[in-house]
Amino acid sequence: MSVQRISGRIVDVVNRTDYPGTIEVSGGVIRRITRDARARGPHLLMPGLVDAHIHIESSLLPPAEFARHAVVHGTVATVSDPHEIANVLGAAGVRYMIADGRRTPFKFNFGAPSCVPATTFETAGAALDARAVGRLLARRDVRFLAEVMNFPGVLNGDPSLRAMIAAARRRGKAVDGHAPGLRGATAAKYAAAGITTDHECFTLPEARDKLAAGMRILIREGSAARNFAALAPLLRTDAARCMFCCDDLHPDLLMVRHLDEHVRRALALGVDRFDVLACASVNPVRHYGLAVGLLQPGDPADFIEVDSWRNFRVRRTWLGGRLVAARGRSLLPRQPSRVVNRFRARPRTAADFAVPAGRGKLNVIAALNGQLITRHVRLPARVVAGVAMADPGRDLLKLAVVNRYAPGAPVAVGFVRGFGLKAGALASSVAHDSHNIVAVGADDASLAAAVNLVIAHRGGLSAVGPGRRAVLPLPIAGLMSDADGRSVARRYTAVDALAKRLGSRLDAPFMTLSFMALLVIPDLKLSDRGLFSGSRWSFLPLQA
Fold first, then answer.
1. Rounded distance, CA 373 to CA 390, Å?
2. Which residues 6+ apart lie within 8 Å of 15 measured at CB?
3. How far apart are CA 529 and CA 542, in angstroms?
4. Which residues contact 177 (CB under 8 A, 6 or more apart)?
5. Secondary structure class of 21 (helix, strand, coil)
6. Distance between CA 173 and CA 243 in Å, rounded?
7. Closest Cα to residue 542, out of 532, 255, 534?
8. pLDDT number for residue 359
9. Extents of the domains making up the chain
10. Nearest Cα to 364, choosing from 352, 348, 382, 351?
11. Are strands 314-319 and 303-306 parallel, antiparallel or unpaired?
């Protein structure tokens, strides 16, 4: 059996030391690591990076294509919740993700989605009850119970959620949380139900309350939700109970960064380098019991070479002893993925988005840049001929959700501010978590045009404006493209650029739009059934 020898400065994160040395690899395993004073080069050899919580679907790429680009940034494994595709295709969607990921040496670790649909207040393409989730958890290749988003259900002792959590704990599998804003005794009650992590903290006091309750905190920096700056102080006080994650990362960013950016930012703050790397490797591997190497003799040979502590640029990545990325290029072959879908929506007209004017003010969603939470504001409507209209001059736009599974269902319409469009509309079939079509626009005709572009492609992202339109087709479940990652990133960049030319001030307008239908994140959101308050856990009238 041939032996590979790779020399450099060994960064032993497990034992918190580093030294010049040589790694010997054969049969995909690290056979020996020896100290070698001659290996004094500047390059660092360390464990590969592990994203502790990410939805692969949000990269708009299927697993095999995601892997090709993630390895360039030193990522060797992910802890992935497939509930996006599960909301469209059910357990078959979970099996699709597992099978697609197996075509690559990348170490995907998928969980059993716990909330399909996320709530009973929306229409999804499938439902997974406790029995179905239990069957998934019985599989060896399903590693954990994915984020328990229905935190009111946990707090109120929902029998189905209790059964799912119990099934995971019986099998020794971790239970991921999702509880934005929970504090104090409420957070402690949520953790006591068996929840082990949370990635939704957006303030330091909230994170500290959850740490006190015994939870691990996942420090998130993705495309829409960016909480690193707020939570970075935890790296100096509680690094042993923290991990890094992206949660959702669009393809334009995946082409330039992944967890390597978390590490760079933490090192730039002067955080202890071993604490930083533990958050990016050791902590998730141990918490979830992953079969991922940590640069120890006998481990799978999953490791990376980095140029320096100062730059932290990944030079090479190995998975199971196989060199999979070098000098900024992926060495994994392109493998087109099978197309699966469930999409029954039919074209809409401008009249479908009309809102008869009522009495009182509008209940309006206020979207926030870099956050998944929203605010609830009340504003007077702009009324023309008895119809409540969008008012771009006040940044008061229409928000709509079109049911993609039941073609005859009425369109749900609300109002939103924060997107900043001066004209035109955006639409997307990526609409967490039920993945109906969500759209925002400055007028009804533009809303219909943007939605119909998505429908014509049976899924995608679209932007339309005066004399201009752009679309990124997403034929795999209406969530992912079957094209190569770089072309997807280019088309995403084009549709994103048109959104910004139309006036959007958001860093990631399509990512923010995708969360306008996620009812479990407060406060105000819109489902295909109407306007919903996460804090009241009930529907609200559009005008009152």
1. 22
2. none
3. 12
4. 147, 148, 151, 190, 191, 195, 196, 197, 198, 199, 200, 215
5. strand
6. 17
7. 532
8. 85
9. 48-290, 350-539
10. 382
11. antiparallel
279 to 13, 14, 268, 284: CA distances (angstroms): 10, 11, 15, 7
The reported pLDDT for the residue numbered 249 is 92
- What pTM was estimated for this model as a whole? 0.94
Residue with tokens 């229905």: 150
Q: How many CB atoms lie within 10 A of CB 378?
A: 11
* C-alpha–C-alpha distance, residues 357 and 416, integer Å: 16
Residue whose C-alpha is closest to residue 335's, from 528, 101, 495:
101
Tokens 């032993």 sit on residue: 12
Burial class (CB in 10 A: 0-12, 13-18, 19+), 139: middle
Who's near 298: CB < 8 A, 6+ residues apart?
29, 30
Domain 48-290: CATH architecture, name and number where available: Alpha-Beta Barrel (3.20)
418: its two tokens: 């924060």
Residue 3: how many CB atoms within 10 A of its CB? 11
Query: How crowded is the C-beta side of 54, counted as CA atoms within 13 Å?
Result: 34
Strand pairing report for 460-465 and 29-35: unpaired
Report the distance separating Cα 238 and Cα 242, nearest Å: 7
Average pLDDT along the chain, 544 residues, taken 10 residues at a time: 91 97 97 88 92 97 98 98 97 98 98 92 96 97 95 92 97 96 96 96 96 97 88 98 95 96 98 98 98 98 97 97 97 96 97 93 94 93 96 97 95 98 98 96 98 98 96 98 97 97 94 92 94 93 92
User: Which among 136, 144, 234 is positioned nearest to 197, based on CA atoms?
Assistant: 144
Quote the pLDDT of residue 31: 97
Q: Which residue type occupies 515?
A: F
Q: 242 pairs with which residues across the strands? A: 217
